Amino acid sequence: MFLAKLQQEEKEAFLELAVLMAKVDGNVSIFENPIIVKYQKEMDLENYTVKGVAIEEILMVFKDERSKNIVLTEILRLVYSDGIVHDKEKESIRLIKEHFGFDSNKYDNFKDWILGIKELANYPEHE
Description:
The chain is mostly helical.
């Protein structure tokens, strides 16, 4: 949704983070893979080769509040896409939240917003 607004270095770091988050539970779900492909298209990184950068190094790339908000929003969207949040995903989200300095209220607002969007997207259409 907002990834095109990131700087080039941030886009690459975000893609590294998204792939890392998708794999952290040991399995890239059928829900997560299409989202990663969509992220690549949105950021014009279809030919980018993921390097496997460590999460701490990735998070240092994001310096301003706007970028951090975008990253948290999109990572939550990815993590909640399959409806299951594994312990390793929770731990990684906690690390992101702490590194970015988000308090629980701000994090909860982002999470609720993402879950609301997911619910709307899955709402059956009327004929």
